[in-house]
Design goal:
The chain is mainly beta. The chain has 2 helices and 37 strands.
Length: about 450
């Protein structure tokens, strides 16, 4: 029997990529291959996880999200607000149980998935539709009035329930007056009517009337060619606009008019499906299945495209504060980075920087599967800031980046089995004939 002393000063976190289990280095730092049910804090101390406590019973709950003013989730086709463990139903959510995406702007939360969209007003506690529907095109007839002879174009808009916003324009109709007269809108009910001057293209507000007798030119139509948002995913609010994706397309709203989209103009197209949209102060990250791009700039028409990294995994984005890794990588003393986008790519967990680069936080340390989608959150747990990501094992029949069998077995069993531990060529621990004892100390004290 032999005896030895190993001085462990701090842990670095798990590393399941290295070939063999390592003991402490010359500085007393150890990096285990697997750490189960424990966390390593910023000081290198190994802290036992306290476990989870059931806060509320809500069968089939998904799409949990928390912002500055509220926490929301979906269960059984209903939207719920969760407050101190109590879930309160807010509205129905149409369609199958698809992940719901959120973007918080002030006291309003914009929500959407491929089947449903809405806006939750946290101050009023109400859910309303996102966007104002457009009316049908006007049916026009000549009548008495003061309009000179010529061709006129007419459209209509709807108004929001509070009267503060107007919709995009309806289909446009035209009429030619052969002599002085007026225009009657036969299908008008309560819409706002807009008309051009003779043979011109600018629409001016006539008002909530069904008869046009002259052309006022004081208020042009500002929502021309706009429409409500489509059913979007990967919502993001940045630079006064809401951004979201449909397949390979990213659409963005009019500036500070979050219910108005010019779908034929205000869009970006990509070569594969968009899975992540993340914002930093200097631009936007657009993660796709086959790669991630950074669009430098704050105005869509002026953005510069830069290749950033590997394909991104849908649903794994969270914004994190006080991320020390960025200060270490950039070599700066600042440690107080806020609203740093962190998500999972095909090459590991990355943080997006204002320079448009992705910093891989798990490269050469953690081997994991490459899923189609996942979920993530950022939290403060008893003073410890954590980014958590969860996903199924990976894409069927895909071996790219798959977890090693040993790590997977440990996670599934919930226990570390020394009999099954493989030391990469040295045999299992149980195969050693010698019995070894050791004393483990930290800072000179036995642990």
């Amino acid at each position: 029997m032999s005896s030895s002393t190993i001085d462990l000063l701090r842990f670095k976190g798990m590393n399941n990529i290295k070939a063999a289990e390592g003991f402490a280095d010359s500085k007393g730092v150890i990096e285990p291959r697997v750490i189960l049910n424990a966390d390593v804090d910023i000081n290198g101390r190994l802290v036992k996880r306290t476990g989870a406590t059931l806060a509320t019973t809500l069968a089939g709950a998904h799409s949990l999200w928390a912002g500055a003013n509220c926490m929301l989730c979906v269960a059984a086709g209903k939207l719920y607000k969760v407050n101190q463990g109590v879930a309160t139903e807010l509205s129905s959510v149409d369609g199958p149980g698809c992940k719901l995406f959120y973007a918080e702007v002030g006291n309003k939360v914009y929500m959407s998935n491929p089947y449903w969209k809405g806006v939750y007003d946290s101050s009023a506690g109400t859910v309303s539709s996102w966007g104002i529907s457009q009316p049908n095109g006007p049916m026009l007839f000549a009548t008495v009035g003061n309009l000179p002879a010529g061709t006129y174009y007419v459209c209509m808009t709807n108004t929001s329930s509070d009267g503060d916003e107007i919709s995009g324009n309806s289909p446009i109709s035209s009429i030619t007056l052969t002599s002085t007269g007026g225009i009657q809108v036969a299908n008008w009910t309560s819409e706002i009517v807009w008309v051009t001057d003779t043979n011109e293209h600018v629409f001016y507000r006539v008002g909530t009337v069904g008869t046009i007798v002259d052309v006022p030119t004081s208020e042009p139509l500002t929502t021309f060619l706009c429409s409500p948002p489509p059913l979007l995913e990967n919502l993001c609010y940045a630079f006064g606009r809401i951004w979201g994706s449909v397949g390979k397309s990213v659409y963005y709203s009019q500036p500070y008019q979050l219910s108005l989209f010019k779908l034929t103009m205000n869009r970006f197209e990509f070569h594969s499906n968009v899975t992540v949209i993340a914002a930093v102060d200097t631009g936007m990250f657009f993660g796709c299945e086959n790669g991630t791009l950074f669009y430098k700039g704050t105005r869509p028409e002026e953005m510069e495209q830069i290749h950033a990294g590997a394909g991104s995994i849908k649903g794994t984005l969270a914004y994190c504060n006080n991320l020390p890794e960025l200060g270490d990588i950039l070599g700066t003393p600042e440690k107080g980075y806020v609203d740093v986008p962190v998500w999972l790519t095909k090459e590991g967990i990355v943080a997006g920087s204002t320079s448009g680069k992705l910093y891989n936080l798990t490269k050469n340390k953690v081997k994991m599967s490459v899923p189609e989608s996942g979920a993530a959150l950022y939290r403060n747990l008893q003073g410890v800031l954590q980014f958590l990501v969860s996903f199924k094992r990976g894409v069927a029949e895909s071996g790219v980046g798959s977890s090693d069998a040993e790590t997977l077995q440990v996670l599934e069993d919930g226990a570390v089995s020394q009999h099954e531990h493989d030391n990469k060529g040295t045999g299992s621990i149980s195969s050693f004939a010698d019995v070894v004892t050791c004393t483990v100390t930290r800072n000179g004290e036995e642990v």
